[in-house]
Amino acid sequence: MAYIRPAGVRRLNPNLLVLLAQSIDLALPPEDIAPLTSALSDQFASAASLDRLNLSEVHPALDFDPSWSVADDTQWEEDLE
User: Of 9, 1, 7, whose CA–CA distance to 41 is shortest?
Assistant: First the structure.
């Protein structure tokens, strides 16, 4: 899978994965536990690598407008000039 896999990352315990699945009433076939454990471990490792980023100058988005219009494209092109 295309996750960041830092060397030496601790793997998720398969029993914990089973408990997490049971907590949301999700049945995991035994043959899926190993690959899902590996994939989830890789996801956690990828997210952990984000902790090393300096985000001191990055501010959270407090307002979001998902609309898009042609006028937005025009303004963006003007900003490039």
Answer: 9
| Cα(70)–Cα(72) distance, integer angstroms | 5
Give the CA angle between residues 68, 74, 75 to the nearest 5°: 85
63: left (phi over 0), alpha (psi -120 to 50) or beta: beta
Distance CA 48, CA 32 (A): 24
What is the pTM (predicted TM-score) of this model?
Answer: 0.54
Q: What is the pLDDT of residue 1?
A: 45
Instruction: Round to whole Å and give the CA distance between 55 and 51.
Output: 9
